[in-house]
Design brief:
Structural class: alpha+beta
Number of strands: 4
Radius of gyration: 14 Å
Mean pLDDT: 92
Strand order of the largest sheet: 1-2
Low-confidence stretches: none
Helix content: 25-40%
Oligomer: single chain
Shape: globular
CATH class of one domain: Mainly Alpha
CATH topology of one domain: Arc Repressor Mutant, subunit A
Strand content: 5-15%
Length: 146
């Protein structure tokens, strides 16, 4: 699908959405079919008509720790941010800031699990798999001053 942050490919199957790929990212070899309900919800999000996603998410291929981080990250509401350090504390491992950053960087479901809402402790944007400009756009879309 086309989006304000570039082309996105949303894939999933019976268990839910399993992957969101940014332009130029390779699809997994066993990528399931397109997931039209998820693409529709993303279009509504970009149009400012949706704040929460309701499609099921498939995290079966994620390690236990990364799954814990991503489930906690999914709780960060629209229009709010957190930091890598706060997220590490929330999952009960305050020293795991780098591991939390790695979990965010490898998030298979960006947008649905809002890794764009995670900032560095100094308030800087930090990285984003879709690019820093995309992260800035998403935060501004949600009314967050960056």
């Amino acid at each position: 699908m086309d989006s304000p942050i570039g082309a996105l490919r949303v894939v999933g199957g019976g268990a839910g959405v399993s992957r969101v790929c940014f332009a130029g990212e390779p699809l997994p070899i066993d990528a399931p079919s397109d997931y039209p309900a998820a693409a529709q919800q993303l279009a509504e999000y970009f149009a400012g008509e949706r704040r929460d996603f309701t499609v099921p998410l498939d995290l079966r291929g994620v390690t236990a720790f990364r799954g814990l981080v991503l489930r906690e990250l999914a709780k960060v509401p629209y229009g709010r941010t957190t930091t890598y350090a706060e997220l590490a504390r929330a999952v009960g491992n305050p020293k795991a800031v780098r591991a939390v950053g790695s979990a965010c960087a490898t998030n298979p479901l960006p947008l649905f699990i809002p890794c764009h809402r995670v900032l560095r402790s100094d308030g800087q944007l930090g990285g984003y798999r879709g690019g820093v400009q995309a992260k800035r756009y998403l935060l501004e879309l949600e009314g967050i001053d960056v």
